[in-house]
Design goal:
mainly alpha, 90 residues, DNA topoisomerase binding, elongated
Length: 90
């Protein structure tokens, strides 16, 4: 029988990948494809391995939200009204 036998760290990594893939497959089977990507599943496994069990989204860098929904809706209404006025001029 010809085959490759993995030992030590390589076998641990192989098992980890198999467990991760099987976990992702089961989640997709139960909750459908929209549940989470394989990449997210991998990232969560890494976080859990490091002792971080928080799966809630963290604050992200970048531009913060400026308007509340009601304020944003008012602003959009103003833009729509100006757009209609501009169209009438032509």
């Amino acid at each position: 029988m010809y085959g490759v036998f993995l030992e030590g760290p390589k076998m641990s990594e192989y098992r980890r990948v198999l467990i991760l893939a099987e976990t992702h497959r089961l989640l997709v089977k139960v909750y459908n494809e929209a549940v989470l990507s394989e990449k997210t599943c991998r990232e969560w496994f890494q976080k859990f391995k490091n002792g971080d069990f928080d799966v809630e989204g963290k604050d992200r860098s970048g531009r913060p939200k400026i308007y509340e929904d009601a304020e944003l809706e008012e602003l959009l209404d103003e833009i729509r009204l100006k757009h209609k006025r501009n169209l009438r001029l032509f």
